[in-house]
Design brief:
By secondary structure, the chain is α/β, with parallel strands linked by helices. The chain contains 12 helices and 5 strands. A 5-stranded mixed β-sheet has the order 1-5-3-4-2. β3 (51-56) and β4 (59-64) form a beta hairpin. The N and C termini lie far apart (64 Å).
Amino acid sequence: MSTPTIAPPEFRHVRIELIDEPELAMRESMNDERMGDLIASIRRLGLLQPIGLVQVGARFRVSFGHRRFIACRQVPMQAIPSMVFAEGTPDEEAMKVAENEDREEVNAGEAALYLNELLERKCGGDVDRLCDYVKKKRGYVEDRLLLLAGDLEVLQELRARRIRFSVAKELNKVKDTAARRQFLDAAIRGGANGALVRRWREEHELFQSRQAQPASAESEDAKNLAPQPIESVMRCRICNGADDFHEMEVVYQHRSCAKVEQRAFENQPAIGARS
């Protein structure tokens, strides 16, 4: 059975008042901050990537690029660069899914190296000039450049897409190298997010601060008191053990469910008491 041939789209600038929303939108919500960034980018540079439209009589319906269409209305633009498909195009929804799902966002680690090259080659080391050069907010630029000043192993794992950007940012805040590497290992194996790594970091820092309190005493031994191993932060939620960190994995569950499981475990007879 032959696959129907889709007529190639026509590139046109379509007046915005002739364009309708998609019949079925793929996105339920849109991030306000990122939408603001997109609107600002369109105002400075124009729309760099056309939207996809399906012609319906004298009007047009958004097929893909819904987010860009909304941003163009808020700029506002009189006409939008568009790829116009003929009415009755059979793969309208497939194009929508492909446009949203098949794109690969620039890795933050790769972006860090790219921005650093621009900083040195084009902007004379001036971060403000770099922000203006790439038309990005200072926070965006600095967050990525700071990756280069952090742990190189963290950067390497980020570039390899084994951890998320939010995880890399939290890991680079961990001052204890041993703890940072252990958190990195756990994040890779368990798929931890930034919020979980932040909790690990804060618990570890809290324990270290408590351990440092005796340092005010005159005893030299107290001043040299070693912090408790990081396993104290990452204990098994069932048995509270931390004998072998590498036997652990990250688990997500509701706190209420964890309490039910804990009670069930506590009501079980000890292993040695089982027949």
